[in-house]
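chain below, 316 aa
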Amino acid sequence: MPTNKKALILAGLLMTRGGYSYERSIPKGQVSGLKLLSELKAIVPGPLDSRYASCSFCGLHRGPVFRCDGEMHVQCPDCGPYKVDVSEQRNWSLDIDWMIRKLRAALNIAAHVAIQKLYEGVWQIGLYKKRAVILAERIELVVANALNLFHGKTPRLDSWVITPRPLSRTSLDPLLGTATWWHLEDCFAIHGNGLRFVGEEGGVIEASVEPRSVAVHGPFSETFEWVHIPDWSNDPIRLTAAQAAIFEVLWRYRGQPQSAETIMNKAHLASDKLIDVFKIKAANRGDPTYEGPMHAYETLVVRNRRMGLYSLSEFQ
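prediction:
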């Protein structure tokens, strides 16, 4: 995929998330896109306090940064000291003003036409072919305010609505018959130092650009609710919230063995053993929905029974 395309997909992801996103949460395949967005000044760095850093393991605490053997470390009150990874502390936000300026230029919207903030995360950025152009961080914000947006005191029937493609898979257009929904990543492209309009075909979303199941943390999805095990299936395995919490804690410890008590406490679970969360009832044996998570546990978790310690295998 061209870097320009990756960059626009990443811009859509940051726009959907809103606020600041840590660099560690950006899919590896889009890092080159991050560099391009930075060069275009389409993103802005978040505040970085060199005296303190967020814990990459638990994500719950910020600890003081100190130098040890010429390297910087952070002291988490729960997880203890560890070496600081600068990239894990950097965070970025999409510059929405940049996005609005470039979209207006791509659509040849006259400079004297005012920009209106309609709701939090929703703007009318001008007119295209005498129809209102609405930009929103997420399609849900448009749907939630649709009655006032399209049928209120200032009717905006047949508007053009621009949003990033939604993160979850859907086959429905919630604005069908009311407005034309343009997906930012499909109808525009990064060209030079701005955006170029490439088409106005609204359509059905057959698959998400950044599906919730895509592998971000090694074999795990961003929320750890999905895990990819190639020898099990071409499709990812869906985990329960409790199973996902365990894998997330193991991942944050970067392959360092931990006791069951530590892992379960960090995962906010009451069970004494990790296996309790993955056990399969007799009635569910043979069902891939339950067998899949157990296979993931047996494949990825290294167990030192003598010491009572657990870690992830082949940690990357």
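The radius of gyration is 23 Å. The longest strand covers residues 62-68.
thats it, cya
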